[in-house]
Specification:
Number of helices: 14
Largest sheet: 6 strands, mixed
Shape: globular
Strand order of the largest sheet: 3-2-1-4-9-10
Radius of gyration: 24 Å
Number of strands: 23
Distance between the termini: 14 Å
Length: 516
């Protein structure tokens, strides 16, 4: 099978062509302000090379940082309505209560709390107040709100009230785009609701972005199906990704980790992805990124959904450096590296210039940085290594030395040895590991539920059946599915032999779907 993997980062857009697991071609270009031009440029390189026929491509996988950047930079976000089904409980902390003020001002629209919701065992708290939902729909229609999120108490266990509310809302306001919290988050009302609200804020941007991706492929008459990479290292169809862009927020660093695993052959290791703007550090377990079990902040908003356990720092090839007084980042020249860096004739000292002056890499014109003193270069080197060590050490969960796989265009900044690390591993094609990770991505299904009145064995079997059904629905080949993550936690404070199970299955894309 031939696949194209593309990763659109903040600085570079990377593309690889894989045949099986072998990298046939790879290209790197500067990310463009409109995002899709960078994709066109890399596809043009394949055409120019005349080594591959695009008609032979079986699938295209694309990952992007576009959505997390939109949240962080407060750009291109929808105004969002919130409907919480909870009364008479859970009314003291309304939707958006813990959001940063500037994000609330841009995103928060109509907020409505209505009676309804369920107990942990599926019993109704109170009947759903359908009249209040109709009133909420009318209010949102009158204010021109076209995107909203619906959350309900314990909806991951039973989504009945969320689904009924969505039908009522659409009957009154047909243009509404609705995100149900039960389809995204885990147990924990506020964090799950926040994830749904952020998703609702991104759906228009997702439609524009993914449509532009598809148009870029159509220009090259590339008819292979398009898949979008997600936070857990797997992919979904572009149609589903348009509905759930929040599941693609961390696909960039996740792709790098999956690519690092594939290129190195290691399934358990620390991965350090040093890009042009940031360094992302995470832990591989069984070839997949370790998932975060706790609250994850996105743009200052507390969420709890499928996200890798990552630490990020402002350190990369485009990071700016000042000599007097000495400062290192966190600002970066980003995709303007080839215009701004000294070695390319620019006027800004970056870590790429430091790497060239130190002899770590040959790039641009070294004569442009020959005046940097060895003392200054040593100071920068010491600070780089200190920050990398502290970040890598923080991601570890015990003192066991693990291999460190270094990837990314800025990998020359990493030391060759490090305390607490068994070995520093450099791999071929490390500069496009993110695109490799995108190209090898599979399909997943996840379940996180509380099961009652069942034995542990029966509860796990039922969880597997439900997770398997989700994966197959997302396009996975049922025969290839394997369990990559399983946690079960007895809940002693609940009656009925209650057991919380979190399970994730991963499998290959169904062949006839890739050929469709």
């Amino acid at each position: 099978m031939k696949r194209i993997g593309i990763d659109v980062g903040g600085t570079n857009t990377d593309l690889v062509l894989l045949e099986g697991n072998e990298v046939v071609q790879s290209f790197k270009t500067i990310t463009t302000s409109d995002v899709t031009s960078g994709i066109r440029n890399t596809l043009l390189e394949i055409v120019r090379s005349a080594k591959s026929d695009l008609g032979e491509i079986d699938a295209v996988m694309i990952g992007t940082t576009h959505f997390v950047n939109a949240i962080v930079q407060r750009q291109n976000l929808n105004r969002v309505g919130a409907l919480r089904i909870c009364l008479p409980s859970c009314g003291s902390l309304p939707p958006f209560v813990d959001w940063p003020k500037d994000l609330v001002e841009q995103v928060a629209g109509e907020v409505c709390l209505v009676a309804g919701g369920h107990e942990y065992d599926g019993r109704e708290l109170v009947p759903l107040d359908e009249k209040a939902i109709e009133t909420a729909a009318l209010a949102m229609r009158s204010k021109g709100i076209r995107s909203m999120a619906i959350s309900a108490v314990f909806s991951p266990l039973t989504s009945e009230h969320e689904e009924r509310a969505a039908k009522i809302m659409r009957d009154v306001h047909p243009e509404l785009q609705i995100t149900l919290s039960s389809t995204l988050g885990r147990i924990g009302l506020l964090e799950r609701e926040n994830a749904a609200l952020l998703n609702a804020a991104l759906v228009d941007l997702a439609d524009q972005t993914f449509s532009a991706f598809k148009n870029a492929l159509d220009e090259f008459e590339l008819s292979a199906p398009l898949f979008i990479t997600q936070n857990d290292g797997t992919v979904v169809s572009v149609e589903r990704a348009k509905d759930y862009p929040i599941l693609c927020l961390a696909s960039g660093p996740t792709n790098s980790m999956r690519g690092a695993a594939s290129l190195s052959g290691l399934s358990d290791a620390i991965v350090c992805d040093i890009g042009g703007t940031t360094t992302d550090v995470g832990s591989l377990r069984g070839g997949f990124p370790r998932q975060a079990n706790n609250v994850v902040e996105v743009g200052g908003v507390r969420t709890l959904f499928r996200m890798p356990d990552l630490l990020s720092i402002g350190l990369g090839g485009g990071t700016t450096v000042k000599e007097n007084p000495f400062t290192l980042g966190p600002q970066s020249v980003g995709y303007k590296l080839r215009q701004k860096a000294l070695v390319f004739g620019g006027d800004t000292l970056t870590l790429t210039d430091v790497a060239v002056a130190s002899g770590w890499i040959k790039l641009g014109k070294a004569t442009f940085v020959k005046n940097l003193s060895s003392r200054f270069l040593d100071s920068v080197k010491t600070e780089i290594f200190k920050r990398l060590y502290e970040t890598i050490d923080s991601i570890k969960i015990d003192a066991t030395p693990l291999p460190l796989i270094v990837v990314g265009g800025g990998s020359m900044l990493a030391p060759e040895t490090m305390g607490g690390i068994s070995e520093v591993v450099h791999v071929q094609h490390n500069e496009v590991a993110n695109a490799v990770g995108a190209a090898i991505a599979q399909v997943s299904g996840e379940i996180d539920r509380i099961y009652r009145d069942l034995s542990r064995q029966d509860a796990i079997a039922l969880a597997e059946k439900e997770a398997r059904a989700k994966a197959v629905s997302a396009g996975a080949d049922n025969e290839s599915l394997i369990i990559v993550e399983l946690e079960d936690l007895p809940l002693a404070y609940l009656p009925g032999n209650a057991l919380r199970i979190r399970m994730r299955l991963v499998g290959d894309i169904k062949q006839n779907q890739a050929e469709a």
